[in-house]
């Protein structure tokens, strides 16, 4: 179901060390490459850190080999049907969705407000 702003998807980014989580809302999955570029620039500018690895599932939206090579980023993909390899993000993703569903259900809000429920979980995101 689209959100009030027309978003149908969201990208969850989790830092392996600190478990800090960023959420980016998307209208279509083709926005992922641009969001990855912006996120890389954000981390570099705000924290002075170069991203070393990006781990993702085998989604085509993460195929940005030229960008990864240019910035020295190693792109790791998980094997098919092995959630253990992306377990941290998968558990975080399920937790975020569970809390968002609970908030919507308990407050009797329309389902189209799911994006605001997600922002409760990660308030410092876009």
UniProtKB/TrEMBL annotation:
GO biological process, one term: DNA integration
Annotated Pfam families: rve
Keyword RNA-binding (UniProt): no
Ranges of residues in domain Integrase catalytic: 1-126
InterPro entries xrefs: Integrase_cat-core, Retrotran_Ty1/copia-like, RNaseH-like_sf, RNaseH_sf
Gene Ontology molecular function: any one: RNA-directed DNA polymerase activity
Entries under PROSITE patterns matching the protein: INTEGRASE
Keywords from the named record: Nucleotidyltransferase, RNA-directed DNA polymerase, Transferase
Name under which the protein is recorded: Putative RNA-directed DNA polymerase
Organism (species): Lupinus albus (White lupine)
